[in-house]
């Protein structure tokens, strides 16, 4: 798994690319604070090599909790900026700091 951040000089956003190797998965989405934990509109595209990838514009100078939703199972990003306990989920969430 990987996260790539590209800060834009002309806009107050950061292009964040999420990459998830999940060859056997049918569907992968990234869900978090930035999309109300909804997989709608945040599904990653499956590439020929079996990796799922997607890029989203997120506001700069923000912090977001998130997870991947891989075929209905929540999975944390191994290369997150940090992790934070979430009482509602009863587990740690990955944290993205922009």
UniProtKB/TrEMBL annotation:
InterPro entries to which the protein is assigned, alphabetical: AMPK1_CBM, CBM20, Ig-like_fold, Ig_E-set
Any matching Pfam family: AMPK1_CBM
Annotated PROSITE patterns: CBM20
Superkingdom, natural source: Bacteria
GO molecular function: hydrolase activity; starch binding
Entry keywords, A to Z: Hydrolase
Domain CBM20: 8-98
UniProt-listed Gene3D superfamilies: Immunoglobulins
Protein name: Glycoside hydrolase
